[in-house]
Amino acid sequence: xxxxxxxxxxxxxxxxxxxxxITFGNQIESNTSRELMVTAYEAGVNFFDNAEVYxxxxxxxxxxxxxxxxxxxxxxxxxSSKAYFGIWGLKDSKPTQKGNTRKHLTEACHQxxxxxxxxxxxxxxxxxxxxxxxxxxxxxxxxxxxxxxKIFYWGTSEWSAQEIMEAHMVAKELGxxxxxxxxxxxxxxxxxxxxxxxxxxxxxxxxxxxxWSPLASGILTGKYNEGIPEDARLxxxxxxxxxxxxxxxxxLKKVKQLGSLAKELGTSLPQMALAWCLKNPHVSTVILxxxxxxxxxxxxxxxxxxxxxxxxxxTRIESILDNKPEMPPF
Length: 330
Ligand code: NDP
Fold this sequence. Notes:
Blueprint: E1 3-5, E2 12-14, E3 16-19, H1 23-27, H2 30-42, E4 47-49, H3 58-70, E5 78-83, H4 89-92, H5 102-116, E6 121-126, H6 135-147, E7 151-156, H7 161-174, E8 181-182, H8 192-197, H9 201-204, E9 208-211, H10 240-246, H11 249-265, H12 269-278, E10 285-288, H13 293-299, H14 311-321
Parallel strand pairs: 3-4, 3-10, 4-5, 5-6, 6-7, 7-8, 8-9, 9-10
Antiparallel strand pairs: 1-2
Bound molecules: NADPH dihydro-nicotinamide-adenine-dinucleotide phosphate.
């Protein structure tokens, strides 16, 4: 396992990490969750990602219980939470139970610490931008949580480059700490933010990235090529919006061609798709998701596939994808 600096910070994060969205406290049993965490940790994964809204807080409870049982040294891993949506989601949480306000971020941090049964979070993210809260309030709150030792680094998720820069400008003006990392979606089918929109701010503020859905929720494994498998994520009722957005003919056509290329290279499609994300130097860590141990075992081997992705292979992938984002004109 390679370890990369989280942006300009000195924090060393494993290039592959592990997250619990949809799975923990929801799709899978606690025993499987535990086995997945052990598999990840033993392979060198040192970052575990979570959020208040995952399974209405149960995802953090399950992870916290497992961490307690396993008794790994707290200084050997990085743990995160994310707040904004509220535990019950934007629609069902009360007005004070969501957003990037001082009240919600502080309470969400305290609640996450309790559910995860830890004294501090290494990373704490604003899960989305909040157009109704002044950025200064958010920056001051995150800085206070850092000074109180409740979190070590703060970051954003799916913020625009402009919003991230605004947070940095406010932080600089006030002598406070700005966001270290952003958590954007990044995979072969979804490239705009990571490759184009943030291209300048890697240089200017040294932004780190913890990228999510590297397999586009499983589309990039090829498992949806012939229909929707019964036990797969996109068969879940509550994710029909994601199925409609992702299981599309134009995507599946590309996935089939990518599958043939992976076969030719002697690897699997998920490993090739993950290695493709890892090749991007602006990615600090790729957050893996898995509902079964064999999936995680397979995905964790992606590191060894990076070497197969030569310039020539990357060019072939590019021509299959045909979705290279246009770079900003500067
Ligand atoms: P992926 O895109 O990698 O999807 C993971 C899912 O794909 C698995 O749960 C499994 O689903 C399927 N899968 C994975 N590997 C294989 C394999 N080898 N063979 C067959 N199927 C496979 O990642 P996630 O979407 O889970 O995202 C990873 C993490 O990123 C999350 O856990 C979370 O921590 C974070 N995240 C953050 C978001 C944000 O807004 N900040 C949003 C979303 C995620 P199944 O078995 O059910 O088919």
